[in-house]
């Protein structure tokens, strides 16, 4: 229980996890691998959440070490990246994994700042500003969302 609560799981969730042998075994292995990469104090709640999600969603456990390393090295830091990583290993079951392709597919190293998001939204709104003001609430927002 202590190992699981150390990554941010609640005591109740840790106890539930222990009841599922396959999940608890995979999670223990993932945590150990992240500790090996990061040191014992280096697994925070965000990383713990990703490790739990990895352990619960990964079907092919031979990829657990590989993916845990990426999480431990903070190369995979979001649920979207993890989902892309899981999809990649599912669609590429053969060894070895092409790390360059994996990094590209999963967005490793891609950082988007809030300022970049704001600039992109402003650019799209400004592009359609005249039509937005003219049609107001009748404007088809789907056109903006598809940009």
Plain-language structure description:
- The protein is mostly helical and 147 residues long.
- Helix 3 crosses helix 4, helix 3 packs across helix 5 and helix 4 packs antiparallel against helix 5.
- The chain is elongated, with a radius of gyration of 20 Å.
Question: What can be said about this structure in brief?
Answer:
The chain has 147 residues and is mostly helical. The protein is built from ten helices and no strands.
Set out the fold topology.
Layout: H1 2-5, H2 11-19, H3 21-38, H4 45-57, H5 64-72, H6 79-91, H7 99-106, H8 114-127, H9 129-135, H10 142-145
Helix pairs in contact: 3-4, 3-5, 4-5
Radius of gyration: 20 Å
- What does the average pLDDT come to? 87
List the uncertain runs: none
What percent of residues adopt helix (DSSP H or I)? 55-70%
| Helix/strand/pairing category | mainly alpha
Please report the number of helical segments: 10
Largest sheet: none
What order do the helices and strands follow? HHHHHHHHHH
Question: Which tags fit this structure?
Answer:
single chain, 147 residues, mainly alpha, 67% helix
């Amino acid at each position: 229980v202590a190992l699981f609560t150390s990554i941010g799981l609640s005591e109740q969730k840790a106890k539930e996890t222990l009841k599922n042998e396959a999940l608890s075994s995979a999670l223990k292995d993932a945590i150990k691998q992240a500790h090996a990469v990061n040191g014992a104090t280096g697994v925070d709640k965000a990383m713990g959440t990703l490790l739990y999600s990895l352990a619960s969603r990964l079907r092919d456990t031979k990829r657990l070490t590989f993916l845990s390393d990426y999480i431990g090295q903070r190369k995979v830091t979001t649920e979207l990246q993890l989902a892309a990583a899981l999809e990649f290993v599912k669609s590429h079951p053969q060894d070895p994994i092409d790390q360059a392709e994996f990094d590209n597919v999963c967005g490793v190293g891609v950082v988007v700042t809030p300022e970049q998001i704001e600039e992109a939204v402003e650019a799209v709104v400004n592009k359609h500003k005249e039509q937005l003001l003219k049609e107001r609430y009748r404007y088809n927002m789907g056109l903006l969302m598809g940009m």
